[in-house]
Amino acid sequence: MNIQKILKENQKRLNAFFFKHKDLLALKKDLLGTFGIPDIKTNGLIIATGHQPVFHYPGLLFKNYYAAKIASECKGSVINFIVDSDIADIAFPVPCRKGADFNKQNVALANEMNKLYAFFLPGENEIRSFFDKIEQCLSSLNSRGIFRSFDQYRKEFLLELKNSNSFTDTILLLQKRFESFYTASSIDLKISNICRERTFYHFVWVILKDHEDFIKVYNYAVKDHSTGSYREIKQLPFKNNRFELPFWFIREGTRFGVSLEKRGSTFIFYTDDKVIFKLEADKRSQEEIINSLHKNILLYPKAIMLTLMIRLFFSDIFVHGTGGAVYDKITDAIMKEYFKLHPTPGFLTVSGNIYLPLTGYISGDINEKLKKLQRYLDDMTHHPVRYMDKKEARKYINKKKMISAELLKEKGVKERATLHTQLKNLTHEMIRSIQPGIDKTGKELNKIKAIMDYKGILLERMYPRFFYPSAVNFKVLLEKEIRVSYKNN
Fold it and tell me: Fewest Cβ atoms closer than 10 Å to its Cβ: which of 153, 287, 298, 399?
């Protein structure tokens, strides 16, 4: 994969688009300029990635690692979007043992008020109790390396929490510290901070001023490209002369659906059938309208809008994990049909697995390894000559040829049976000669089968990074296990 060629092609497509749409180019410069991005001394290439501010698991590390890698190769910059605009969901599986059997439990921090990450502030006692539950599970493993890694992280977390007084900032700080050992630095942009800037409402107004046309395209794109996955995107309904918007209304740290009714030149915003804001657009400049939106209403983008904004205005290429990539058939369709951007800029999907070494190091596709080892073992027992010393193999081949030649001549039943027995005995001798290899392969196969018996636990992808013992060399494994694909719709 020639990443420099891909980036240049993306830039070419975006430059041609913005050359035709000076108003949107002004928006892009406005957005980037707000966060000082043009001041970076690079060739202007921007690689974007992002995720919610959760306790990172290895799958997320692959995205950050690869984004930093290509930025270094292409002398570009990485923007890491902190999606603190979602409902805080701090939960993950924790491995444990019950007797000789492996198991796992889900451990979570309660968020009964559905606060967004940007406003999620659990108390210190809640956080300590959360870590205590994790400790109870990990203690049952009798793994010093795993427990030591967890305990060190817990101490660092509680110490930094006192300094920052922010749960999500503490997660981000420790993650940044860990990643500094193998990735270049990135610009971290919180969605909550972006949405407090006046320039974000420039983007909002681009959508709102022709919202009926936009929502029509949006809904067609959702209808045509929804995958039926767990990240199912819903269409935006029209009800009571109001269009549901592709934004959330934010109040007291929680989010609400927001709909819009246009009466003449007045834009009326609703949530729960209550008017929250009226925007009078008649005889007002775009600047005045943007300022009024910024002053009177706090909106966050929904998933499709966020991805669209990042791909169109904040980056030359977006680095997705496997989950986020499901959005981009929809965003591609919107860019083509509404913004008339065709071909759309391609994006990258990055994935990989680094399994927690509960029974030793596990790498690669376990299902494929199981099939391969089984085929290999079957072949060893059916065709042992392929695995023997060449001289020894030649002797047995010659003996078999001689017995086979006698079989062709022999007519007697007893005599033929004796010759068949001799051939079988030779085969058994050949198998015995490679028995060490068969035993070794059998042990490997049994190990994989044992893993498959507990694959939901041993092959769990969502264990947080701080469970992994210090002996796990992430830098080596990230390079070894990474899988990258380029999507060009």
Answer: 287
